[in-house]
Design a protein that fits this description.
Distance between the termini: 50 Å
Number of domains: 3
CATH architecture of the largest domain: Roll
Main location: cytoplasm
CATH topology of the largest domain: SH3 type barrels
Family: Belongs to the elongation factor P family.
Order of helices and strands: EEEEEEEEEEEEEEEE
Number of strands: 16
Shape: flat
Helix content: under 10%
Strand content: over 45%
Number of helices: 0
InterPro entries: Elong-fact-P_C, NA-bd_OB-fold, Rib_uL2_dom2, Transl_elong_fac_P/YeiP, Transl_elong_KOW-like, Transl_elong_P/YeiP_cen, Transl_elong_P/YeiP_CS, Transl_elongation_fac_P
Radius of gyration: 20 Å
Organism: Mesonia hippocampi
GO molecular function, one term: translation elongation factor activity
C-alpha cells in the first residue's frame, strides 16, 4: 500500500476496479483545511482520462510494474505491434495504451510498463523526444518572423504539429513527445 505522498507521474494504481496511470498530479496545501492531491488518471484498459482528488495521507493501492524495452514494428489499423529488444517476443497493443501514437515511427524503441502480477502490458512510454521529418508544410513568408508565428506541418508519421515559419519540407525536427510540440530543428 502506498499513500498520497508516493504519487508521482507514471505511477500505476488500482482505483475503482481498474488500473490507472497517473499522468498529472499537484500537491495542494491550502491556508485553511487539510492538504490534498489533485490528479489526472488515465485508464490503461480503456484510455479514459478522469480527474480525482485524494486527501492527504489517503491509502492507495499501487500496482507493481516492471519496464522493458520494445521496438515498434508496425500498425495494422487495429493494433500496434512491438518486439522485445532482448528476447524478440512480440506483443500487440491498442491505441488507448499509447501516450502519443501519432509520433510513433517504425523502429522506434519505447518503454513498455508490464504488470508483474499477470505479465500483461499496461502502457507504452515514449522517449522524451523524437526526431521526425517534415513531409508537408506551407512555405514561410520572408519578413514575417517578428513574432512567435507558427504554421501547421505534417511529419512522416502523419501527425500534425505547429512549427516556426522557417521550417520547410524535408527538414528534420525534434518533437517533445509529452506535449507533441516542436523543440528544435536538427542540422545534418
Amino acid at each position: 500500500m502506498a499513500t498520497t505522498s508516493d504519487i508521482k507521474k507514471g505511477l500505476c494504481i488500482r482505483y475503482s476496479n481498474d488500473i490507472y496511470k497517473v499522468t498529472e498530479f499537484l500537491h495542494v496545501k491550502p491556508g485553511k483545511g487539510p492538504a490534498f492531491v489533485r490528479t489526472k488518471l488515465k485508464s490503461v484498459t480503456s484510455g479514459k482520462v478522469i480527474e480525482n482528488t485524494f486527501s492527504a495521507g489517503h491509502k492507495i493501492e499501487d500496482v507493481r510494474v516492471e519496464t522493458q524495452k520494445f521496438q515498434f514494428l508496425y500498425n495494422d489499423g487495429e493494433f500496434y505491434h512491438f518486439m522485445n529488444t532482448e528476447d524478440y517476443t512480440q506483443i500487440r497493443l491498442t491505441e488507448s495504451n499509447l501516450d502519443s501514437p501519432g509520433l510513433l515511427k517504425e523502429g522506434e524503441v519505447v518503454t513498455v510498463l508490464i504488470n508483474t502480477e499477470d505479465s500483461m502490458p499496461l502502457s507504452v512510454e515514449m522517449p522524451a523526444s523524437v526526431v521526425l521529418e517534415i513531409t508537408h508544410t506551407e512555405p514561410g513568408v520572408k519578413g514575417n518572423t517578428a513574432t512567435n508565428a507558427t504554421k501547421p506541418a505534417t511529419v512522416e508519421t502523419g501527425a500534425e504539429i505547429m512549427v516556426p515559419l522557417f521550417i520547410n519540407e524535408g527538414d528534420k525536427i525534434k518533437i517533445d513527445t509529452e506535449t507533441a510540440s516542436y523543440k528544435e530543428r536538427i542540422k545534418e
